[in-house]
Structures are given as structure tokens and as C-alpha cells.
Design goal:
alpha/beta; 7 helices; six-stranded mixed sheet; single chain; two-stranded antiparallel ribbon
Amino acid sequence: MEQYKKEFIEFMVESKVLKFGEFTLKSGRKSPFFMNAGAYVTGSQLQRLGEYYAKAIHDKYGDDFDVLFGPAYKGIPISVVTAIAYSNLYGKEVRYCSDRKEEKDHGADKGSFLGSPLKDGDRVIMIEDVTTSGKSMEETVPKVRGAANVEIVGLMVSLNRMEKGLGGTMSALDEVKERYGFETNAIVSMADVVEHLYNKPCNGEIVIDDTLKAAIDDYYKEYGVK
């Protein structure tokens, strides 16, 4: 596993973004882990978050893209800090764009989008916190493709939960790839998380012990994808 991925896993735990215990998800599933990107709240956390996204995007997609598109709401700050980090790390200026939940009907920036307007020929990378069901893409992809003649190069999320999506047979990321025809990737997967944290100290404590590992294994027996 690449070093930046190991660091990112520990960063999620340190920031209390990735938590372990008993959680009820929107889907009704009882999960032994939960991720909340809204817990990144400080300047240094957001700076590091942008750097990890930039490294993963550069690793998976290279430099051949023009726009980072972050769906409202959590995708907005992620796309902004990643655009900053990409410029700092790789010397490439990329634009950011996000959608509005409600269209603005006044001012110079009225319309359905924030940031840079999408233009014909733009190569776009979608950027989100986590895709559990893929439902957010149902709203976002038509908006992006309807705004201009763009090519969506791919999607990057923080964490691949590696569980069945809406269709019940493949992961949410694979469903998005199959439905919309672009690549989907995550900085890390839950398999990476377990590999890195199981019975290993993180900030001086064991985060995933035998009991929690058994709960995660049981969860994936029911909801996981092969």
C-alpha cells in the first residue's frame, strides 16, 4: 500500500472522520463503522485532505483534466481544497465547479453552479466524500452533462465502503461506473483500512481489535461485494 494511503487512514481516524462502533445508516443497515467528512473542520485538516485527494487523483487519472466538480454540499469544500493542493503539488491550475441545491436568480453569478462555468470540451473529475448507494450521482451527472459538452473522466471519493449499492449485486462505485461509463476510484478502501489498522497501534491505541474485526467481517458477509 502506498505511503500516502497509510497516512490518510490514520488521518481519518485522528480527525474522528472514520469512527468504529454501532451505527445505523440512511439505508437502515447497522454498520460497525461510519465516515463523516463533515468532521474535517480546521484549516490544517482541510489542507491535508486536499493533498490526499490531489495525490490520489494524480495517481489514478494523471494531469489530463480541467475541472474538479464537487456536488453540494460536502463536495464543495473538498473540490476547493483539492484544486489548491493540485496547484501546489503538481504546478497545474485546475478549476473548481459545484452545483447549487437551489438556483440563484440574481447577480453576476446567477444560475445552477458555483465556481468556474463548465465549457464545451472540458474534462471533468467528480469529487465526493463517500458513495454508499450512488444516489447522489443520479442528480449530479445529468446536471454536469447538461451544462456543456463535457467529458467526465472519473469519480474520486475518500473511502470505498465495498458494500452492495442500490442494485444489490455490486458496489456503489461499480454501479456508477457501469451506469454512467466513467472510471470510479477511492483514496482507500475498507480492505485497506482493515489491513492497516487491525491489531496495529494508531495514536497509541489499537483501533481495530479482534472483536471489531469480527463485527466488520460479519457486516461484509451480509452486505459486502466480492
